[in-house]
Amino acid sequence: MTKNIQDDNAQKIKKRRGQMMNKKTNVWIWLSLFVMLAMLLSSCASPSTPQAQPATTEEATTETSVSAATEAPQPAVTQEVSPASNEPKILKVRLPKDIGNLDPAFIVGSEDDTVDRAVMEGLIRYKPDGTTENQLVEWIKPSSDGLSIDFKLREGIQWQRGYGELTTEDVKFSYERFIDPNLNAVYKDDFASLDHVEIINKYEGKIVLKEPQATLWTTTLPMTSGLIVCKKFVEEVGLDKFKTDIVGTGPYMLTEWKPKERIVLKRNPDYWGEQPYYDEIQLIPIDDDKVAEVALEAGEVDFSLVSLASVDRFQSDPNYHVDLMPTNNYSWIAINVENPKLQDINVRKAILYGIDVPSILTATYMGKAPQARALIPPGNLGYWKDAPHYDRDVAKAKEYLAKAGLTSLDLNLAINDVTEFRTWAEIIQQNLAEVGININIVPLDSSTYWELGSGDKGKEVELVAMNYSAMPDPAWFTMWFTCDQVGVWNWMRWCNKRYDELHKLGIKTLDPAEREKIYIEMQQLWDADVISVWITNQPLAYVSKASIQPAMYPGGLCPMLRDFKATE
Amino acid sequence: MLVYLIKRFFMTIAVLLLVMVFLSLLVHIVPGDAAKTLLGPRASPELIQKIRAAMDLDKPAYVQVANFLWKVLHGDLGTDVFTGVSINRLVGSALPHTIILAIASLTLAVLIGVPLGVFSATHPDSWLDRITAILSISFTTIPSYVAGLFLLLIFAVQLKVMPAIGLGKEGNIKDYLMHLILPTVALAITWIGYLARLVRTSMLEVLNETYVRAARASGLSERLVRYKYALKNALIPTVAVLGVGLGSLMGGAVLVEVIFNRPGMGMLIYNAIKTRNYPVVRAGVLIVAFLFVFVNFLTDLIYTYLDPRIQLGKQQR
Questions:
Q1: A469 DSSP 8-state letter
Q2: I need a labelling partner for A544 at 20 to 30 A (CA). Which of A82, B56, B195, B228 fits?
Q3: Does A100 contact chain B (CB < 8 Å)?
Q4: How far apart are CA B176 and CA A40, in angstroms?
Q5: Quick check: A128 and A560 in contact, CB under 8 A?
Q6: A43/B46 CB distance under 8 A
Q7: What sections of B30-86 are H helices per DSSP?
Q8: ipTM
């Protein structure tokens, strides 16, 4: 009896087990199929960014001469192979973030600069040594009154993807769009003095200005705003497409963009000038410095910006080459002179003598950053090499505080809440406590921080840790601190009429020696009113494999990809 | 069942609507001007205004929600104001990578965690059970980003046996899978420990149930009793946790994707938050919320399969 029950149970169990197994098997089969399908879809079916289709030869000839059409390069899709080896030479470069907008009138970050300047070219350009040279022009010369610039383009330069020959039409289109009110270019100030571009013939033209503009030669024509865009291409694809797809005359062509994944530049086989060393450059957006460092060490990128804290580690490894690039970043403690607590210059001097800047540099930048002494850093026109040094002197600081009739003072120090400024703030808090100034650190998130000095609410600011960067011309340093910038970017709310006059004069003056004097005087005015404590011009650390010889734009702005080579 | 499905459908809509309202309000709550932050100091007021309009930030919150909802219903998640690229395309290229990572991690966690838990429960107080307990608790306490960094340093940098970042070469499935291994382990490790502890506890409870004793008394083999009857019931709470777990794995994937530089949904949302690219944040969060709700719904359905006593849409007596 018991055995029969057991047999029945066993049979029932077997039957139910069979049913359950079938159900389970089905679930697992469907699950496996789903995973496999998803994998296949993601690894195979996600196509690259569809780039604008190359113009056919017929299309290209519609607006160009017959000879230009016959010379127009065929759409380049084949991989150029280096003559020295069968393997294409591929360089992998880390970008700190993905591209934002490649239109030179609207670029978002240095990543856009990096791509633009590998693909497009300007009338003149910066060389890796920081000097300028002619690029698309045979010659270019300013008039004696500085109100016009004559130029002649090199003949026969072809746009990539068969868009025909470069002409003065393209130059006119590229520059005048900056001052087009309908376009409302972010960088319209770069061409603030431009009136129009006159076409003399296919290759010769004249840039006509309303007034002289010294920055045209330093930060407009040789930089991203000065890049010549292909009129036919932009009109064909429209502005939206032009944000992420560009055509140039340069040594590299943009062949692929996969958002957040990679940008591929391939050598332009029909480039008019000297061919670049690398056949292909892969740009990989990596947000985090530490992740980029791991990628470098794992051999997955060849060149990257790294944190200053990692410099020693890479310097001690013979497989890597470290470039500590001086930059045009400038950091300082801004003192709001309109705030009642800080209107007395003696209080400001007490702060100046109370802060130990070398300690801040050691603690924050591992001693890799130089101490700044004035607004314009070394290497730029207008650098004030005799700027005074203010070493920490607690006795003197207390003396100045006493002169202001104070024995103690409570102040807020606002910072953008990142490690760098937190370290600054903690040291300053301790330093000034010895003087009798009690610092309350006010950490703010990035967006709140950047609104801090705006409008009338900026009057409430007391001390702020600040960090700006500038292009390589002194006017880019001084422009944010004029009277009309109070409540905008001049958070010291310092207004000096003479400074404003000199700023205007500096932009119009073309003689470098004269400009040098102007900008030094401006820094002397700043120094006399004690409106800041200068901290540093923070360098950038770039690490590359030892076999690579990198090249950078002045001020460490971005890598100059076209000039990267192998070390000899 | 049909009533339940209809109810669930409307609940899903309500949840997604709430998410959208919350996200729209968030833009107004967070201090600072999103358009100004996005464009930087050199942007003219006109351009800032233009971008604000493009992001609908110049409109009241209810109009923002309505506009966004209208677009979503038409299958349009909007446009990335930076690049002008359709967000559908951005999500379309990022989402499969995140889903694969989450499913691979969950699968790995189940494949390791469940046997570990069963083993511990069937060998209580043995030295192997103790080692398993130590391992499980250790795994549970390791955050995925810490595990990720260690895995990278050991296997990619020191041993150089694994790729470090990215997805691998396009179209190469083997390379894709190789790039999936370390992120999967990093994301799964916490869940391995957690599942092992959970399954052990459930299994110990179930093994003391009367029906298990009855099965043993019926002469069924110990193996059949443990793995056929006890395990199936012990897994019910695990399935409930896994349903929610897949959602939290999607959240955990953000950090793992950043560490391994994988262009998935986490990375997309993380970058969009950093740049205050609200249309992308809004669309990304909506998709993740939808997946979360959908997975929970699936979990409920799986309950009915695992335990036929549970009847969805009917009150239990």
A1: E
A2: A82
A3: yes
A4: 10
A5: yes
A6: no
A7: 34-39, 45-54, 61-73
A8: 0.73
